[in-house]
């Protein structure tokens, strides 16, 4: 795992990186240790970075996993997953792939944003998030997930995620689901492995839902 790349910090590259973080969390917080006993080893969940990753995130907003996969498949078949192709395509072309009017606008905003994705790999996490949220259609949650999984940042968290909030409520036996600001404060204690803490909470949430007989797409 890459370390000491200040101001980027640690980069999660392999399952061993995740295991190192999980071990640190288990030693720092007994509840995490108990959760790991239930979940087993945590997934790496690294993804490619770049324009396609963010376009796919826009496509997946407010639709089911199956619907998002179908739309993305049609976009790929039409070769409409690159910034210039999006810019050149007609609204009818994009609508035929399943994009709503709002998502067509978001896709065009992203294609014209001029983001230098390679440069983000060496940028501080706050700068990455700040750059991404300037694009209409990309909120803080999407930006944090991109930093976590596409850039492999080890110390980024997404406290606005409802599954993370519910997992924290269950694991820490809280009376209510913690709000975003409260969970963000809680996660300060999990630095420098907040991204692994997120993986663990998602895994714990999935375990809890399976135990209740409810399927979950947490942290998809």
Characterise the protein shown here:
By secondary structure, the protein is an all-alpha fold. It has two domains: 15-44 and 155-211, Endonuclease Iii, domain 2, CATH 1.10.1670; 51-150, Endonuclease III, domain 1. The protein has helices at 15-28, 30-39, 51-60, 65-77, 83-88, 91-96, 101-111, 117-120, 125-133, 140-150, 162-171, 180-187, 194-211. The longest helix has 18 residues, at 194-211.
SSE blueprint and pairings:
Elements lengths: L14 H14 L1 H10 L11 H10 L4 H13 L5 H6 L2 H6 L4 H11 L5 H4 L4 H9 L6 H11 L11 H10 L8 H8 L6 H18 L9
Helix pairs in contact: 1-2, 2-13, 3-7, 9-10, 11-13
Question: Can you give me a brief rundown of this structure?
Answer:
The protein is about 60% helix and about 0% strand.
Descriptive key words:
mainly alpha; Endonuclease Iii, domain 2; 0% strand; disordered C terminus
Radius of gyration, in Å, reads 18 Å
Give the CATH level 1 class of the largest domain: Mainly Alpha
Helix content: 55-70%
Supply the CATH superfamily name of the largest domain.
Hypothetical protein, domain 2
N-to-C terminal Cα separation, in Å?
Answer: 24 Å
Number of domains: 2
Per DSSP, the total helix count is 13
Order of helix and strand elements from N to C terminus: HHHHHHHHHHHHH
Shape: globular
Main sheet? none
Average pLDDT metric: 93
Tell me the CATH architecture of the largest domain: Orthogonal Bundle
Strand content: under 5%
CATH T-level topology of the largest domain: Endonuclease III, domain 1
């Amino acid at each position: 795992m890459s370390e000491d790349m200040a101001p980027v910090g640690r980069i999660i590259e392999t399952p061993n990186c995740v295991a190192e973080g999980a071990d640190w969390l288990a030693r720092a917080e007994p509840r995490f240790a108990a959760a790991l006993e239930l979940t087993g080893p945590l997934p790496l969940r690294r993804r490619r970075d770049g324009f396609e990753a963010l376009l796919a995130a826009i496509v997946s907003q407010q639709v089911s996993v199956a619907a998002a996969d179908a739309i993305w498949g049609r976009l790929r078949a039409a070769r409409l997953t690159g910034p210039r192709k999006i810019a050149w395509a007609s609204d009818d072309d994009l609508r035929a792939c399943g994009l709503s009017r709002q998502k067509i606008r978001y896709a065009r905003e992203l294609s014209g944003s001029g983001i230098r994705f390679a440069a983000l790999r060496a940028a501080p996490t706050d700068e990455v998030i700040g750059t991404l949220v300037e694009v209409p259609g990309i909120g803080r949650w999407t930006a944090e997930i991109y930093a976590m999984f596409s850039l492999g940042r080890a110390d980024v968290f997404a406290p606005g995620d409802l599954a993370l909030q519910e997992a924290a409520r269950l694991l820490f036996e809280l009376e209510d689901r913690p709000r975003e600001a409260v969970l963000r404060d809680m996660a300060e204690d999990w630095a420098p492995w907040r991204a692994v803490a997120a993986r663990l909470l998602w895994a714990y949430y999935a375990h809890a839902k399976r135990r209740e007989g409810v399927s979950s797409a947490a942290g998809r």
